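Consider the tokenized backbone below.
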């Protein structure tokens, strides 16, 4: 049986998503308008949406569904 490789994250999910979104936006700025640029911007928006969802999930006002 194979063992899973495990490692401890040194940065929070929020930090990793923020860095990834910034990196993707910088790459998109370097490209001319087109499909590749739009894909990078879409991934950056997805990362930013994940940041918002993660913040919402960890908010103190969140209640479990009934």
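A designed sequence for it:
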């Amino acid at each position: 049986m194979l063992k899973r490789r495990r490692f401890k994250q040194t940065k929070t999910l929020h930090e990793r998503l923020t860095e990834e979104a910034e990196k993707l936006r910088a790459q998109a700025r370097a490209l001319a308008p087109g499909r590749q640029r739009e894909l990078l911007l879409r991934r950056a928006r997805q990362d930013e949406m994940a940041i918002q969802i993660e913040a919402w999930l960890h908010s103190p006002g969140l209640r479990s569904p009934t």
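The CA atoms of residues 56 and 62 lie 7 Å apart.
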